[in-house]
Amino acid sequence: VQRIAVLTSGGDSPGMNAAIRAVVRKAIFHGLEVIGIQRGYSGFIDADMGPMNLSSVADIIHRGGTILRTARSEEFKTPQGRAKAHENVLRFGIQGLVVIGGDGSFRGANVFHEEYGLPVAGVPGTIDNDIAGTDYSIGFDTAVNTVVEAINKIRDTATSHERTFILEVMGRESGHIALTAGLAGGAESILIPELDNNINEVCEKLYRGYKRGKLHSIIIVAEGAASGLEIGKKLHEMTGLETKVTILGHLQRGGTPTAFDRILASRMGATAVEMLMSGNAKHMVGIAGGKIVSESLADTFKCKNAIDLELYKLAGILSI
Amino acid sequence: VQRIAVLTSGGDSPGMNAAIRAVVRKAIFHGLEVIGIQRGYSGFIDADMGPMNLSSVADIIHRGGTILRTARSEEFKTPQGRAKAHENVLRFGIQGLVVIGGDGSFRGANVFHEEYGLPVAGVPGTIDNDIAGTDYSIGFDTAVNTVVEAINKIRDTATSHERTFILEVMGRESGHIALTAGLAGGAESILIPELDNNINEVCEKLYRGYKRGKLHSIIIVAEGAASGLEIGKKLHEMTGLETKVTILGHLQRGGTPTAFDRILASRMGATAVEMLMSGNAKHMVGIAGGKIVSESLADTFKCKNAIDLELYKLAGILSI
Amino acid sequence: VQRIAVLTSGGDSPGMNAAIRAVVRKAIFHGLEVIGIQRGYSGFIDADMGPMNLSSVADIIHRGGTILRTARSEEFKTPQGRAKAHENVLRFGIQGLVVIGGDGSFRGANVFHEEYGLPVAGVPGTIDNDIAGTDYSIGFDTAVNTVVEAINKIRDTATSHERTFILEVMGRESGHIALTAGLAGGAESILIPELDNNINEVCEKLYRGYKRGKLHSIIIVAEGAASGLEIGKKLHEMTGLETKVTILGHLQRGGTPTAFDRILASRMGATAVEMLMSGNAKHMVGIAGGKIVSESLADTFKCKNAIDLELYKLAGILSI
Amino acid sequence: VQRIAVLTSGGDSPGMNAAIRAVVRKAIFHGLEVIGIQRGYSGFIDADMGPMNLSSVADIIHRGGTILRTARSEEFKTPQGRAKAHENVLRFGIQGLVVIGGDGSFRGANVFHEEYGLPVAGVPGTIDNDIAGTDYSIGFDTAVNTVVEAINKIRDTATSHERTFILEVMGRESGHIALTAGLAGGAESILIPELDNNINEVCEKLYRGYKRGKLHSIIIVAEGAASGLEIGKKLHEMTGLETKVTILGHLQRGGTPTAFDRILASRMGATAVEMLMSGNAKHMVGIAGGKIVSESLADTFKCKNAIDLELYKLAGILSI
User: Fold this and answer.
1) What ipTM was estimated for this complex?
2) What is the CATH code of the structural domain delimited by A3-139+257-299?
3) Could you say which DSSP state residue A301 is in?
4) D135, B263: Cβ pair inside 8 Å?
5) Which positions in chain B touch A8 (Cβ < 8 Å)?
6) Homologous superfamily of A142-253 in CATH?
7) Which of A284, A300, C99, D310 could form a disulfide with C109, with the two C-beta atoms 3.0–4.6 Å apart?
8) Residue D237 burial by Cβ neighbours in a 10 Å radius (0-12, 13-18, 19+)
9) Fold for the domain defined by C141-253
């Protein structure tokens, strides 16, 4: 292997830049050349790419977002689109590809590998943390801390007043952010898509606390479990308590990455280069039990990374 | 004057604790006694109050919210409610009252003074910054910085994708937060209740930038100007561009106060005590041109602190 | 077991409050009573302790420091001191003790258990992360993020000027903070007590980068490896480059705990209670490979948690 | 005026990028061309400069440091150096110059104007806030907040232990940062170069608090008043209390600028362009009483912006 390419795909996540930096510097350290592809598979198809050097990735480790930008490409899902991308593989002399993104991105990489044989290495980057085969994805820790900071601020005003606050966080199919941030933030209730979320139970708990003298409650809702605004409305109707709603939205995808995400991204990016150098042709880098592992790319999008029900129970016990 | 009381009323704002600390320590420095009243006028009516000393306000200068808690009291709007409060004035020997809050709170203080003659000193505390007679209210600077941090995070993901982001901020009748944070955050458009906000113009500007190659736009909407969700929907329908909405809600009321708000609160709280000591019986402490001023309480709720249209124009010029 | 006690000992670390909260609420959930001991073993000896309830630990999960305060007790190292503490065990009916602290604290707990048979459960809390038997101690992640934020700020001014910056961080015998923060912050050189730190090598690397056009360098020094001020002086003498020194000191011990530290503290605090309930009489809760484990208390202070040399190598490769 | 240039000079400060952005966009809005000069007067002499457009300043409003970089130029202090710079003025057709920096930079600009007649507009950018003719300089508010955040963290650990903490902050000749941050942070003592700082008084205050039961003290020292390490040593010798020292150093120059600094920089940068357009040939933009003012450049470096002794007294009263 003499020349590899790197792209970021799907939703961006904090730490992707640290991963790009690791890929580029590790590759150059071993004498490889690196091509940076802009806008994910769209730039792969459109030949929007160019060489990267040590300075290309200077002073980016602490920046949110991705300097290579990202996009969702419908065209890459078609054989014609992938054929165009393959022309660029030949034209630019690309012998390996690092894809930093989520399960949808890995699905595309896997198909491309099967069709054209290009070795691909996946690096899991998504705040949702829902990719199978890795305990953590790049960006999750930062997103959770962003939500926890929001809870901190809400807590200030919550303890001054006597009200119920609802915080809607990201997670269409996965409650990782809601559960982890809810436990870390000391939320009274956490609603996640993986579980039947019984509004009546939430209301009862709210009432129990209220009668015991608990002056305020914070409820975390994953967007996939319910709409924050609707929950606020229902709770108000059922309990008469005043409810206030915050919807964090895409700001959860931004921010300076935490140390955890930068270390994870640095280790994973470097390992992806090693995988391509050692002929490991279609795997994702993962982390399991604190150790870097290699997972067959095809196994990463068959199922979702499950939430830890023990944490859910613990959150219930600690917020009584 | 030998004994004064202090309360926080209305919506809480970051820096109220610094103001309470200043009132208590300044008063004790001059040999006065201080009574802390809980939950605003509600606690004033219910006799939910007690003596405060130097240690009562130790290690609170950096905390959001208010250790005296706050509430909106319907009862204090009635003569009966105020009569009960007056009984507590006699019972606790209160000779002066510092009210930290917004214009509604000052209205109540003014009526109470007119009815019972108790000297009152107002300290403006509201993130909305809409109180006439002062350039700045305690909490405004912190709230603006909270919004600006949110814009920073959105900017990360905005530059990675090519999208339009809408951020709904507080301000039912006032665009101070939206305008100041929008200018500081480099937002492309700012919608405030003080101005006719023409959606068509916002769309046109969006399109112009888009055609020029501007890849992302951030639009700040004060809640009083429009609903963020509706603006997002309309813009999507009119331009076809993908729009993402964040609603910050009450987290804008929390957070560790900035240095600016703590200094402001410290100066204002200390001045309020001086006003009560010097027989200044129904005024609010304000800041104008960087100097502490005294404003007749009655003049603070007749109109609103106007926004600076020069800043609005400047925001337009700098976001071209 | 019907009544347990909890104390924090040694240097404080962010997340200790989350651990106290978990101990108290988990215990109450299982019907136990909890005694909170102030100022570590000093309060244990002086009977500075009292009952805690659900509200004692409300709204503390996000606070740095420890509400139980901490101290280093010379008296507890003497048989006389421990005898006094044992009197309090009998007087207050304490049947188990949770000690949140570092290896010195665990040594004391172990001796006390051997002498008086009181079941003890250790919870590792120290920013140094040097306790054997656990991958992570409570507070380490927060301290690392504090250092990384400092590096971020230094990086701003470093890229504007052309200078060398030296950042001295905590770690008398252990380079965990320096290494992890240095890797996460993209530092050019990292000096830790575990390795021979050759100043000449640091200077050479500095010169190499300088000749290649690298305009600035950031060097992280663990206090146990060298004095930041001395390193700055030496580097200036050897290279003629201007050097600027920051000494973070004890602010690394403060700050709102990160989500990681709060989750860790919550899990460990709850497990410590389970250990006491199940008759596990002299163990520390640890985390290994992401799973909660139980380690003999005596094994936690015989050696230090070793640093990961792979991370050190990676930091070298990525900062070329 | 058709073409103006802009440079940043001296020590960098957070918000300089927002000022550059304002200069560039305001100028382009009025149809002017803008040349960006790298590395202050060094680049002015070396012709290290080039045209800037709307995109040159996109997404920089929130970044610390300066994209134009900065330097201190000895050569520009010589007639030969300035003659070279003048050649570049002719070569690049520069008809006006915006200098963002401190008093030393304005001195140079003033001499250059007197020698060659080039209209110059100064924009005050320094965290020290010591420039006469303006209440605030760009970067001061951010630096103060950085120090206040450090105090917050120290406060966590200070309340857990019983110790004295010393924080050395920037300010060789000026105590603005120390005084403002000390008041905002609730520091027990503040040592600034403008006042005789009597160590005995500091010690006495420390002792008084200690006897009253005050468990911890935080002392802020401006580097120009004393060395933090020496103060720590002396205090320990005099009182026997344990003292811990933090030296913040250059990290005070970095960080994302606060909203206040961005607004200030935006207003000042835009006004500097207006000044050059209106033939105002040798003035600095200042802010006085919240209003933008124009100050003769020659008056900005004759004396220093004085500290507010009322704030110093207030800090003493509120930290009893």
Assistant:
1) 0.96
2) 3.40.50.450
3) S
4) no
5) 160
6) Phosphofructokinase domain (3.40.50.460)
7) C99
8) exposed
9) Rossmann fold (3.40.50)
- Angle between the C140-160 and A259-277 helix axes, to the nearest 10 degrees? 80
- Between the alpha carbon of residue A25 and those of residues A45, A52, A61, the distances in Å are 25, 10, 12
C-alpha pair distances (Å), A266 with each of A20, A23, A106, A262, C32: 8, 8, 19, 6, 45
Which residue does chain C place closest to A160, by CA atoms? C59
Structure confidence at residue A215 (pLDDT): 66
Q: In Å, how far are B304, C154, C220, D63 from C231, measured between CA atoms?
A: 58, 17, 10, 30
pLDDT digits (tens, 9 = 90+) for D138-194: 999 999 999 999 999 999 888 887 788 999 999 999 999 999 999 999 999 999 999
CATH of domain D140-253: 3.40.50.460
A–B interface: beta-carbon pairs under 8 A: 110
Mean pLDDT of D81-109: 97
Question: Which residues, including other chains, have CB under 8 Å from residue A30's CB and lie 6 or more apart?
Answer: A273, A277
For the CA atoms of B84, B90, B91, B95, the dihedral, rounded to the nearest 10 degrees, stands at 120
Residues of chain A with C-beta less than 8 angstroms from the C-beta of B64: 153, 156-157
Closest-CA distance, C74 to chain A, in angstroms, reads 34
Location of each CATH 3.40.50.460 domain in chain A: 142-253
Find out whether A231 and A166 touch, Cβ atoms under 8 Å: yes
List strand residue ranges (DSSP E) for chain B, in order: 3-8, 33-37, 49-52, 97-101, 120-124, 164-169, 189-191, 217-222, 243-247, 282-288, 291-296
* Residue B174: both structure tokens together: 């006032």
- CA nearest A289 in C: which residue? C289
Residues of B identified as active-site: 128
Work out the minimum CA distance from A46 to partner chain C, whole angstroms. Answer: 30
For the annotated catalytic residues of C, the residue numbers are 128
Which of chain A's residues have a Cβ under 8 Å away from the Cβ of B152? 254-255
Q: Which of B28, B62, B267 to mutate to test the interface with D (most CBs of D within 10 A)?
A: B62
For B2-17, how does the pLDDT look when each residue is reduced to its tens digit (9 = 90+)?
Answer: 999 999 999 999 999 9
Number of continuous H segments (helices) and E segments (strands) in chain A: 10, 11
Cβ atoms of D246 and C249 within 8 Å: the answer is yes
CB contact under 8 A, A135 and C290: yes
List, by residue range, all CATH 3.40.50.460 domains of chain D.
140-253
Superfamily designation of domain B143-253: Phosphofructokinase domain (3.40.50.460)
Mutate which of A20, A48, A144, A156 to disrupt the B interface (most B C-beta within 10 Å)? A156
Q: Which residue of B lies nearest to D264 if distances are taken between CA atoms?
A: B184
Which of C62, C69, C156 has the highest number of chain D CBs within 10 A, making it the mutation to test binding with D?
Answer: C156
Residue A67, pLDDT score: 96
> HSE (CB half, 13 Å, CA atoms) of C248?
33
Contact D266 B318 (CB under 8 A): yes
- B141-166: pLDDT as tens digits: 999 999 999 999 999 888 887 788 99
Identity of the residue in D21, D55, D155 whose CB atom sits nearest the CB atom of B62: D155
Chains that touch B (3 or more CB pairs under 8 A): A, D
Q: What is the DSSP letter of A88?
A: H
Q: What mean pLDDT comes out for the span D186-205?
A: 85
Q: Taking CB atoms and an 8 Å cutoff, what residues of chain A touch C55? A: 213
How do residues D221-262 score in pLDDT, each as one tens digit?
Answer: 999 999 999 999 988 888 888 899 999 999 999 999 999 999
Domain with CATH 3.40.50.450 in chain B: 3-139+257-299
- Mean pLDDT within C206-218: 75
Which comes out higher in pLDDT, residue A159 or D314? D314
**Interchain pair B153, A66: CB under 8 A:** no
Q: Which residues in chain B are classed under CATH 3.40.50.460?
A: 143-253
Size of interface B-D (CB pairs under 8 A): 126
